[in-house]
Design a protein that fits this description.
The complex is a heterotrimer of chains A (816), B (298) and C (202).
Chain A (H helix, E strand, L loop, with lengths): L14 H5 L15 E7 L5 E7 L1 H4 L4 E5 L34 E2 L5 E7 L2 H9 L2 E6 L6 H6 L12 E9 L2 H7 L2 E9 L11 E7 L4 E6 L4 H11 L7 E4 L16 H13 L3 E4 L2 H7 L6 E9 L5 E13 L7 H9 L9 E9 L13 H19 L3 H8 L6 E6 L5 E4 L4 H12 L4 H10 L3 E13 L5 E7 L5 E5 L8 H13 L6 E5 L16 H28 L6 E4 L2 E4 L2 E7 H7 L9 H4 L24 E6 L5 E13 L6 E11 L6 H20 L30 E6 L21 H13 L5 E2 L3 H12 L16 H10 L1
Parallel strand pairs in A: 1-12, 8-29, 10-11, 14-15, 20-21, 27-28
Antiparallel strand pairs in A: 1-5, 2-4, 2-6, 3-5, 7-15, 8-13, 9-10, 9-12, 13-14, 16-17, 18-26, 19-20, 19-25, 22-23, 23-24, 26-27
Helix pairs in contact in A: 9-10, 10-11, 10-19, 14-15, 18-19
Chain B lengths: L6 E4 L3 H11 L3 E4 L5 H6 L7 E4 L9 E3 L3 E5 L4 H5 L2 H6 L1 H7 L5 H4 L4 H7 L5 H8 L3 E6 L2 E6 H4 E3 L2 E2 L6 E8 L5 E9 L6 E12 L2 E10 L7 E3 L1 H4 L7 H15 L10 H21 L13
Parallel strand pairs in B: 1-3, 2-3
Antiparallel strand pairs in B: 4-5, 5-10, 6-7, 6-10, 8-9, 11-12, 12-13, 13-14
Chain C lengths: L2 E2 L10 E8 L2 E8 L4 H8 L18 E4 L2 E4 L12 E3 L1 H4 L8 H8 L9 H14 L5 H7 L11 H16 L3 H6 L20 E2 L1
Classes of the chains: A alpha+beta (816), B alpha+beta (298), C alpha+beta (202).
Chain lengths: 816, 298, 202
């Protein structure tokens, strides 16, 4: 029997190509004949467009076209689609591919230039003159909520969506709770910031009136349908191919982006291949951000720390438009409860317009904010009671599965925790970080004049949401196994993990299995890559497809060998009678036999031609119900979302004087059910944690009150380098999901979700006062210390006991 | 993010460069390593009509150690200076500061003189030139002059250089015997511009302090020198409490940081004092830097 | 207010023919004076392994070796690179069947996910382990601190540095030595150089 691939740390099949410079990203696909697009973007956050003068741009040598809104044909000039309708949407607004009458954020595209190359296109873009009438900019949740000014004139209160959900009887339970705490929280904007920005290349075939679009999208099928609609083309004439993609993390799931519509429309109009590659500055001001919310938490609990009621409100910043609907706030609302039994829960939220870049999912997609509310509250409960923070959490853990939470998730179905073992996770985490030994470490550090703190955060994550994904597998007559699945890949090792699954089921060496993702020519039915669903959805889809294909292979072999297919197995790519390898047929031969031929194009094919093999004249060459080719297609559609979970702990050191913050240790216990490839899961977790730490300590989008983004570069948007990210220690738990044949759960976003929560928890522990606003910089921590020292910021009720140190006394002397 | 059009001119010699400067004057920018200039061009924050590339001029690519100074040519990269052991032996503050300049790949191309001519108050090397009381040698087709660091920098990103002038080299002056130097800065990420930085040279004879100079990164408009020699001369090295009190007070009076998205002005002021104090303690406990090749002058 | 423009009118910007020595092969290309080296490598010579992530010198994805030293190709002009020995990721190893030691280390250690930043890391590390053949984990981390990666969290890249150093200390495998490491491989996409601005490859 070949070694089972599932569960093995297999080196990635995509790597040899990518490490040797043989990757093909969208900007690699252009030729010297490809024209380049550049966009004129609004320098103002909120303005009416009075006039656009493109004459200066048209005079420039090498410019082919300059388009404004009125040049967009038909549906391309209408508003971009509202992708995700939801009952909470009161006033949904989407933008135009090119601004029509007004602009609502800095960076909004106003005009497109097509030129011989990007240099000239940028020359021309800067020669387009736009006259504006300035309008007041609405920046930040608090300003939007006050609604002194409106982002959209017909939405006076700036409220795009509003929702209230209640489970149990919150008011009654709160009234009956022995203790009630109220907490105000604040979390800021960050962004996915993949190393490769967005990009699109459109190739029009005027003879066939068809188009191939290459895009760094997270959904080739979604983009295909959207572009066909916008260009008013038959779907069958539009294909979207996703080449290698340099990271996504959510931002590339929104579609169609204005630039995709414009470039595709221009390629057709000019009958030229046109490419647009987003540059970094554009990415900051014209892609998407996420995370900003203001939050209020009321929590009722008893002396044991058992939560009786939880009542939360939050205000979510959705930026200028919300083409991706309310997915982030919806995820926030449905992920607050975490791994805890909370019978009485109410969540009210508002999604608000601001004159800033649109907000669409960023790794975690609203979940980090929900976890932040719950975990900050859990720490507050523990502090109020003077109890250990892990004990209070354990007191509330869900211990029985399935555990319905009474809330409807983003897939339109009720959230039900399908499996997990939260007490075991916590035990592992405490061991990993040495939770119980920390008091001694703290005392030792204090003796050296150092200040340290430990933090913890727990979360659950609904992953692997439907509706479906598909698989399509064929075995060529060479024995090569081709696997297609429609979702797209941005670094998740799909070519490896799906090959592992297929190799196991077909009993072929993994080297023979070639996986292709995100190509609508072969897989027109697919949803996309988002919400930690790739492995769950396509993993199970290719598994089911491989099973079906195996059955077909065994049936054909059975006929030939005249044995019951049930008595056959596949070993190393050869179908044989169980226990009797002498009666066998290689898969490639079955592939030949599966396709009765008239013409022989090679030696293998000869065997399948009319005189190539003995035939039974009582039957047609192909039996009723059979289809030619050793090829199958199948789909996986889960009944509902499966819940992964995890717990993180961190030890931080804060400089007693400079307030510099260092993460000394970071530990993760993660449960994503059965792991297809632990190497890949580990990689996902490590990368996620880095983004979590980045969002806790380094990254934020700094807007001024006029709506200018002040840090739209890698110089000032502080994406961490290797020196800012600690070594991360991990442990895994595998509680299989009962919701899919492979027992797997999603792992893509998990590492990021509790980042802000666990770091806040640790800093709070080090400092002895509440941390309520994240991310936090050394400067902000120092300001908090000053406020605290002046009596304007409260202390924790039960701060960690730290002996006063010689060093602290020495400092006093020095600064005297 | 592509630069606007310009004409590239590769200078064949310093004289050729000066000719080009005379010809194109204010329309031209000098290109040495380009690590500050090209980002600005790519973002179209500047659009000179001409670039004059001096990076290949062998006349400008030497590091010379004299009794009194380390002389650094305009084409010398940060990395070349950083890894030059003779320069390090003569003036350790150079390497102490240079390792904080951006990242190695940037130091491999960026030049120290270019960084000084860029006059960014957030840059390390202008502060070091100031700390050493160094000079810049400027030439133009009409002559040459030596400019003291104190006169060179006239504002953020602004020097007193004329548009037709080229700095051929700078002299970082060496410190007297008994000097210990140190550089410290706090940046959000490794390689970032510092929130605040302090360079310090503490001189002592035996155990008695005879000199103390400080300069700063990111907290003064100009690379200003705080010369505390008069204030601390005669203090015992061991009397760190007195030294620290003096340093803290003087730093407070000297710096004038501004707030930005990364840190408030108050925070920058606070950490500058802390870093200066910590550096003073560290240097007063450290033995003097060993005498190096050639006795320093002065 | 728009539409088809006639490509004429303004005076043409300065162009010149430059001869760039890339991965041991000379390429003669015609470029505008302002053309960034990164664009010339990618679009004029066809070596698309060098990636562009920020065009302001911070991310390091475009890092190549210039006379053996890692530098940002987005902060260099193509015209200024004449006379330098340029080495891109393809010059370090362009054959997926025979990756270089550093490239193999990335495969061994799961040192990449999307792979976009990877070429810049590989050129950086390739030069670093020549300088420091036996780095500590701290030195390995420091060595890559000028390159951004958004996928991995760096941990496996640090491991890749250590693994690469180990492989280099052990010396080239006979087969690998024959197949790569000489930097002489012609790029597979070289024919793109005969393009719009008349470049050609020699």
């Amino acid at each position: 029997m070949t070694t089972r691939m599932f569960g093995q740390k297999i080196a990635r099949k995509e790597d040899p190509r990518l490490v040797t410079g043989n990757g093909s990203y969208v900007d690699d696909l252009s030729s010297p004949h490809t024209l380049a697009a550049a966009f004129v973007r609004s320098p103002h956050a909120h303005a009416k467009i009075l006039d656009i003068d493109v004459s200066g741009a048209l005079d420039i040598d090498g410019v082919y076209a300059v388009w404004t809104h009125e040049d967009l044909p038909g549906a391309a000039g209408e508003r971009l689609p509202m992708l995700l309708p939801h009952p909470s949407l009161l006033a949904p607004k989407t933008g135009y591919a090119l601004a029509k009458d007004d602009v609502n954020h800095v960076g909004e595209p106003i005009a497109m230039v097509i030129a011989a190359n990007r240099y000239i296109a940028e020359d021309a873009a800067s020669a387009v003159h736009v006259d504006y009438e300035y309008l007041p900019a609405v920046v930040g949740v608090a300003t939007s909520r006050e609604a002194e000014h409106a982002v959209h004139a017909d939405v006076a209160d700036n409220i795009a969506a509003h929702s209230i959900d209640e489970v149990g009887a919150v008011d009654e339970a709160m009234a009956g709770a022995p203790h009630v705490l109220e907490i105000d929280l604040d979390i800021e904007r960050s962004a996915c910031m993949p190393m490769e920005g967005k990009g699109v290349l459109a190739r029009w075939d005027r003879h066939e009136e068809s188009m191939i679009v290459y895009s760094s999208t997270q959904t080739s099928t979604g983009l295909r349908a959207a572009l066909a609609a916008k260009l008013e083309m038959p779907l069958t004439k539009m294909e979207v191919i996703t080449p290698d993609v340099g990271g996504g993390f959510g931002v590339k799931i929104n579609h169609p982006w204005p630039e995709e519509v414009c470039v595709a429309a221009a390629a057709r109009a000019l009958d030229r291949e046109i490419a647009w590659t987003e540059d970094r500055r554009e990415h900051f001001v014209s892609s998407a951000h996420e995370r900003q919310q203001l939050q209020q938490v009321r929590i009722g609990f008893d002396d044991e720390g058992k939560i009786h009621a939880l009542d939360v409100k939050f205000w979510h910043d959705n930026g200028a438009y919300l083409p991706y609907g309310v997915i982030p706030p919806l995820n926030t609302a449905t992920h607050v409860l975490g791994p805890y039994v909370i019978r009485n829960y109410r969540c009210e939220w508002w999604s608000l317009y601001t004159n800033t870049v649109i907000v669409t999912p960023y790794r975690g997609a609203g979940r980090p904010q929900g976890v932040y509310m719950m975990e900050r509250a859990m720490d507050a409960v523990a502090d109020a009671l003077g109890r250990d923070r892990t004990e209070v959490r354990e007191t509330n853990f869900v211990r029985e599965f399935p555990h319905p939470i009474g809330l409807v998730l983003q897939d339109g179905r009720e959230g039900i925790y399908d499996s997990g073992d939260f007490p075991a996770s916590m035990t592992k985490l405490k061991e990993l970080i040495g939770w119980d030994d920390f008091a001694a470490y703290r005392a030792q550090a204090a003796a050296e004049g150092r200040r340290v703190g430990i933090g913890v955060a727990c979360y659950v994550e609904g992953t692997g949401a439907g509706p479906y994904e598909g698989g399509h597998i064929e075995v060529e007559t060479s024995g090569r196994v081709n696997v297609w699945t429609g979702l797209t890949t941005q670094g998740q090792a799909h070519a490896t993990v799906f090959a592992q699954i297929v190799a196991d089921e077909l009993g072929v060496p993994i080297d023979r299995v070639n996986v292709v993702t995100g190509d609508t020519r072969k897989t027109p039915y697919s949803v996309g890559t988002w919400g930690s669903r790739g492995a769950v959805m396509s993993g199970n889809a290719v598994h089911l497809t491989a099973k079906k294909l195996k059955q077909k292979a065994l049936t054909i072999a059975g006929r030939s060998l005249e044995v019951d297919p049930a008595d056959l197995e596949i070993v190393d790519g050869i179908v044989q009678v169980k226990g009797d390898p002498s009666a066998s047929i290689p898969l490639e031969v079955i592939s030949v036999m599966s396709n009765p031929l008239r013409y022989a194009f090679d030696d293998a094919a000869k065997a399948a031609t009319q005189f190539g093999m003995p035939s039974d004249e009582s039957k047609p060459p192909m039996l009723p119900g059979d289809s030619p080719g050793l090829e199958e297609r199948d789909f996986f559609s889960p009944q509902r979302t499966t819940f992964a979970s995890g717990m993180h702990a961190a030890i931080v050191e804060t400089d007693p004087e400079t307030a510099d913050i260092t993460v000394l240790r970071y530990c993760v216990v993660h449960d994503c059910g059965k792991m297809i490839n632990p190497l890949v899961v580990e990689g996902q977790v490590l990368g996620g944690v880095a983004q979590g730490i980045a969002g806790a300590l380094y990254e934020k989008m700094a807007y001024d009150e006029t709506g200018q983004l002040l840090n739209a570069s890698f110089m000032d948007f502080l994406m961490p380098f290797a020196t800012e990210i600690p070594h991360v220690e991990t442990d895994h738990l595998e509680t299989p999901s009962p919701l899919n044949p492979l027992g797997i759960k999603g792992a893509g976003e998990a590492g990021t979700i509790p980042g802000a929560s666990v770091i806040a928890s640790a800093i709070e522990d080090a400092e002895g006062f509440p941390i309520t606003r994240m991310p936090i910089s050394p400067s902000e921590l120092w300001e908090l210390r000053e406020k605290h020292a002046a009596g304007h910021w409260p202390s924790l009720q039960h701060p960690a006991r730290v002996p006063e140190t010689d060093d602290a006394r020495a400092e006093e002397k020095v600064t005297r | 993010m592509k630069p606007a059009a310009f004409a590239y001119n590769r200078a064949a010699s310093v004289d050729h460069c000066l000719e080009l400067l005379t010809q194109h004057g204010a329309e031209a920018k000098l290109l040495a390593g380009g690590q500050s200039l090209i980002p600005v061009l790519n973002m179209r924050l500047a659009a000179p009509a001409h670039l004059i590339d001096i990076s290949r001029l062998s006349e400008l690519s030497s590091i010379e150690i004299t009794d009194s100074c380390v002389r650094v040519g305009a084409a010398v990269t940060h990395a070349e200076l950083e890894t030059d052991d003779s320069a390090h032996a003569a003036l350790p503050i150079l390497r102490q500061a240079l390792v904080n300049v951006a990242h190695p790949a940037i130091r491999n191309r960026g030049t120290t003189v270019g960084s000084i001519a860029h006059a960014d108050p957030n840059g390390e090397m202008p502060a070091i030139l100031a700390l050493t009381g160094g000079t810049a040698h400027a030439v133009s087709s009409s002559g040459s002059r030596q400019i003291d660091a104190a006169e060179l920098f006239i504002g953020p990103l602004e020097t007193c250089l004329e548009t037709d002038e080229l700095i051929t080299h700078v002299d970082f002056n060496r410190f007297p015997p008994g000097t210990r130097t140190g550089f410290t800065e706090l940046a959000r990420r490794s390689g970032d511009y510092a929130l605040a930085g302090v360079a310090m040279a503490l001189t002592a004879e035996e155990s008695t302090i005879t000199g103390l100079r400080l300069s700063f990164v990111s907290v003064t408009d100009l690379p200003e020198v705080l010369d505390m020699s008069e204030r601390v001369t005669g203090m015992e090295l061991k009397a760190t409490t007195d030294l620290c009190a003096a340093v803290t007070e003087a730093v407070e009076a000297t710096i004038d940081p501004a707030g930005d998205i990364h840190a408030t002005a108050d925070y920058r002021r606070h950490i500058t004092k802390v870093m200066a104090r910590r550096l003073a303690v560290e240097l007063s406990c450290r033995p003097p830097q060993p005498p190096s090749v050639g006795q320093p002058g002065r | 207010m728009s539409s088809l423009a006639h490509a004429e009118g303004t005076e043409p910007e300065p162009h010149r023919t430059v001869r760039l020595m890339v991965n041991g092969t000379a390429h003669e290309i015609s470029v505008a004076d302002r053309r960034l080296l990164s664009d010339a490598l990618r679009h004029d010579i066809g070596l698309t392994g060098t990636h562009v992530g920020c065009e302001h010198g911070v991310c390091g994805a475009c890092t190549i070796q210039v006379d053996g030293k890692p530098m940002r190709s987005c902060l260099m002009l193509a015209v200024a690179a004449e006379g330098s020995d340029l080495r891109t990721v393809e010059g370090i190893g362009n054959d997926p069947e025979h990756p270089s030691d550093v490239q193999q280390a990335f495969i061994d250690c799961h040192g990449l996910q999307c792979g976009f930043c990877t070429p810049g890391f590989i050129t950086t590390i390739d030069a670093f382990i020549d300088e420091n053949p036996d780095p500590t984990p701290e030195e390995a981390r420091e060595a890559i601190s000028g390159n951004l990666c958004r996928c991995t969290g760096y941990q496996n890249i640090v491991a890749s540095v250590l693994r690469a150093a180990e492989l280099r200390r052990a010396g080239p495998a006979p087969e690998a030595a024959a197949a790569s490491g000489t930097g002489d491989r012609a790029p597979g996409t070289g024919d793109r150089t005969s393009g719009a601005d008349g470049g050609r490859q020699r």
